[in-house]
Amino acid sequence: MVFTWLQLAIFLFLIGGLLFAGGPLILSAIIAPRAKGGDIGMPYECGMKPHGRAWNQFGISYYVYALLFLAFDVDVLYLFPVSVWYPHANGVEAFIEVAGFLSILALAIIYFWKKGVFTWPRKIS
């Protein structure tokens, strides 16, 4: 099999990309200092030693709100290109598509509301 210049360039860039991505990982595994014990396994809380059960201080509500924010934030980002192209669209098709997209978002919000995701617990257990 004979390689052309394009195939050789693609192969070299593939090897270079793999070295660029995997090189620091392999290099850090080889030359990184290894320390066990002490404060290495402790959770980090602003540079102070944690009090009590530091692994169980945060409830799942924080993470659920963060994930919901990211999901709806990314969905709303799809509306920006639509709003730019909307004046150039012909007919009612663009309006029906945008209304369908927004109705799916509204149904998701109603579903999460009915499931009680937006109610904040008084005490995190």
Task: Report on the architecture of this protein.
With 125 residues, the protein is an all-alpha fold. The protein has a domain at 56-114. Helices cover 59% and strands 0% of the residues. It contains 4 helices and no strands. The protein has helices at residues 5-31, 60-77, 79-85, 93-114. It is flat. The relative contact order is 0.06. The mean pLDDT is 81.
Can you give me a brief rundown of this structure?
With 125 residues, the chain is mainly α. It contains four helices and no strands. The protein is flat.
Q: Which radius of gyration do the C-alpha atoms yield?
A: 26 Å
Note the beta-strand portion: under 5%
Give the helices and strands as they follow along the chain: HHHH
Total E-strand runs:
0
The number of helices is 4
| Uncertain parts | none
Q: What's the N-to-C terminus distance?
A: 65 Å
EC number: 7.1.1.-
Transmembrane segments: 6-32, 62-82, 94-113
Function: NDH-1 shuttles electrons from NADH, via FMN and iron-sulfur (Fe-S) centers, to quinones in the respiratory chain.
Organism: Maridesulfovibrio hydrothermalis AM13 = DSM 14728
Present the secondary structure layout.
Layout: H1 5-31, H2 60-77, H3 79-85, H4 93-114
GO molecular function: NADH dehydrogenase (ubiquinone) activity; oxidoreductase activity; quinone binding
Pfam family, one: Oxidored_q4
Family: Belongs to the complex I subunit 3 family.
List keywords for this structure.
125 residues; mainly alpha; 59% helix; 0% strand
